[in-house]
Amino acid sequence: MKCIIILLLILTLTSGRPRNELENTKVLEDHKPLTKRVTCHCKGKSGTYWFGISECHDPSSIQCYAFMGVCCVPTPSH
């Protein structure tokens, strides 16, 4: 039973894992610099990994929690 729980935890943490495509940009939000913006995949779509935050900037975007950050996929506005 413990193995199944650990396996599910690992799968959850890696579902929004960042890829190695770094972008040289930093965004300031509430006077805090956000660093390490990279491309990631979340629920089959490509998004942006943000290091050091727990929620996406846009509440309507798709998000996957990743190691010490979150992967955000913007939703198209109709």
From TrEMBL:
Entry annotated with the keyword Glycoprotein: no
Keyword field: Disulfide bond, Ion channel, Ion channel impairing toxin, Ion transport, Nematocyst, Potassium channel impairing toxin, Secreted, Signal, Toxin, Transport, Voltage-gated potassium channel impairing toxin
Protein name: Type III potassium channel toxin protein
Signal sequence bounds: 1-16
GO-annotated molecular function: ion channel inhibitor activity; potassium channel regulator activity; toxin activity
Family from the record: Belongs to the sea anemone type 3 (BDS) potassium channel toxin family.
Pfam families, alphabetized: Defensin_4
GO cellular component terms, semicolon-separated: extracellular region; nematocyst
TM ranges: none
Main subcellular location: other
Gene3D superfamilies the record matches: Anthopleurin-A
Compartment(s): Nematocyst; Secreted
Keyword Transmembrane among record annotations: no
Swiss-Prot/TrEMBL GO biological process terms: monoatomic ion transmembrane transport
